[in-house]
Design a protein that fits this description.
Layout (H helix, E strand, L loop, with lengths): L1 H9 L1 H4 L7 H13 L5 E5 L7 H4 L8 E6 L2 H18 L4 E6 L11 E6 L8 H14 E12 L2 H5 L5 H20 L1 E7 L6 E7 L19
Parallel strand pairs: 1-2, 1-4, 2-3, 4-5
Antiparallel strand pairs: 5-7, 6-7
Bound molecules: S-adenosylmethionine (SAM).
S-adenosylmethionine (SAM) binds next to α2 and β2.
Length: about 220
């Protein structure tokens, strides 16, 4: 926790909070992954010190693929040392790759069954938020689930105290989410046991594409 706090103070714009997410929020964010027994491809964006990562790892089985994208090198080193190195050694048939990069600069294959996103969208310009959501939905297979979270009431609390540009971004984000809900199925889940309380938002991708079954490939190599 101290580790997260220290990094948050150093880079508050990209970290977006001073405390890592609680086990209750992590559980809600990753429940759909644990519920799927079959082969799966999972992407996590913005893991920080890894509260969601540690909830995903026990749900992985031989042949599964887990890609993690984090731009902060200190968080990457922490994840690697605390969680990923030992997991790979114990589970050579599961592919776990950590990409030290911004999601918008990453080159990923797509076809994910699940995407778990911890990015602080309230700190991002609207255009960046929109392009990251578009990128994540493109990376998700039809029927796959993208889960992100928002702090409860954060936009409403902030709105009166920010300048015009930020206010427009907040309003734009609201209407962007309304449009997303028209195109895909969206379910919101309130989690009070988090500081501050948060909403986990689960988007199930609609549409049709050739990879509807599962993006899970035959690849079982470990990196
Ligand atoms: C709010 S913290 C969430 C950390 C963790 N998932 C949690 O819930 O405690 C946001 C994380 O996203 C990372 N991040 C911010 N912008 C990013 C980007 N464009 N691409 C990848 N990671 C990013 C930050 O470095 C930070 O680790």
């Amino acid at each position: 926790m101290l580790h997260f706090f220290h990094e948050a103070i150093r880079s508050i714009r990209t970290t977006g909070s001073v405390l890592p997410s609680s086990p209750a929020l992590a559980s809600a964010m990753t429940r759909a992954i644990r519920a799927q027994d079959g082969c799966k491809r999972v992407l996590e964006v913005g893991p920080g010190t890894g509260p969601f990562t540690v909830a995903v790892l026990p749900a992985l089985r031989s042949g599964d693929v887990f890609d993690i994208v984090e731009l902060n090198p200190t968080f990457c080193a922490h994840l690697e040392e605390k969680h990923l190195r030992a997991f790979r050694a114990d589970h050579p048939a599961i592919t776990v790759r950590l990409h030290e990069s911004a999601i918008e600069d990453s080159a990923l294959d797509g076809g994910y069954d699940f995407i778990v996103c911890g990015l602080p969208f309230n700190n991002f310009p609207l255009t960046l938020t929109e392009s990251i959501f578009k990128q994540m939905l493109d990376l998700l297979r039809t029927g796959g689930v993208l889960t992100f979270f928002e702090y409860l009431g954060a936009r409403e609390v902030k709105r009166p105290f920010v300048g015009r540009t930020h206010r427009l971004a907040i309003d734009g984000l609201k209407s962007f989410h309304r449009n997303t809900a028209r195109m895909h199925s969206v379910r919101r889940e309130l989690i009070m046991a988090n500081i501050p309380p948060a909403c986990a938002v689960h988007i199930t991708k609609s549409g049709s594409d050739a990879r509807k079954e599962s993006g899970c490939s035959a690849s079982t190599t470990t990196t």
